[in-house]
Fold this protein.
Amino acid sequence: MAEFSIIDQFCRDVGPKHSSTKLDIGDDAAVIRPDQGTELAISVDTMVSGVHFFEDVRPERLAHKILAVNLSDMAAMGARPKWATLALTLPRGDDEWLSSFSDGLKQTANRFDLQLIGGDTSQGPLSLSLTVIGTLPQSKALKRSGAALGDDVYVTSTLGDAALGLALLNGELELGPKNSAHAIDALEVPEPRNEFGQSILDIASSCLDISDGLVGDIAHICDQSAVSIEIDLARLPLSLAYQEYISSNKLDPSSISTLNHALNGGDDYELAFTAAPEKAVTIRRRAEECGVSVTKVGQVIERESRKVYLSRNGRRLEIESTNTKSFEHFS
Ligand code: ADP
Ligand code: MG
């Protein structure tokens, strides 16, 4: 199928048409007119076949994921996602594949109120690059800087499930059917926390999304806020799938290596954020309203040294973030 029919048939009418979109697909560039007093948050994420996903993943799931990883960046900023452009590189114009891919795009774009306003289509090894644009009230963005001494540290939902999903697909472990499905869904169709991210705009002191592992990502908050953070291993939120992984392999539930997927596994797309202790009640209420669980996993403990410490029930363990490993390309 030719480039223009691909664009026409599969990339048009993805997501709602916002009134602030002045030009969308069809011109040399899209034109948007943000409201007075709003700022734009812009981010791009790329997914390459064989690096970020298996070539044979279901196309509607792949479509969801390229949107979800970008939506998650908007969630981390507290921004409201509104527009996206998609650079699509395809090995061939496979009608059936494109049709499922397009259905997946439309479903998720509609659910998150995101309009696809442009992109680029070319032939080559399967790769997707999506730019997302969201709006923010002026000067309100949730940044990685801003964590203060004494703040609580929270994460949404559970950690490590996507890493378990990857291990399952690689044949490195086995779980019962229900927990397997949960872990593989966590990997292939992560749920970005956009509503919750926007609901903590005036509450969180810093925020990011966990894409490369909790410890490595929390270290970014430490760096940019010039603080240290202590994570209590006993508090890490683990799913039923993770609990089955521990019990069926007779692992020591308190050892760091057992918790490795939760501490350092990639692709979680949960939010990690800090907030002053007096915000605790409001945070629980907001989370409940958004239908997501939040767990306090630690505390901002000191200025200057900029390290992540691990503890268990208040006792610090002799290991620092530099000893653990989160995902990095080129390393
Ligand atoms: P150009 O030649 O100026 O790069 P193209 O011919 O590639 O433009 O694209 C024509 C129109 O289709 C443009 O408005 C572009 O934004 C849009 N477009 C191309 N590919 C995609 C895609 N994968 N998803 C959404 N819009 C696309
Ligand atoms: Mg052009």
DSSP finds ten helices and 13 strands in the chain. Residues 28 surround magnesium ion (ligand 2) (CB under 6 Å). The chain has a mean pLDDT of 95.
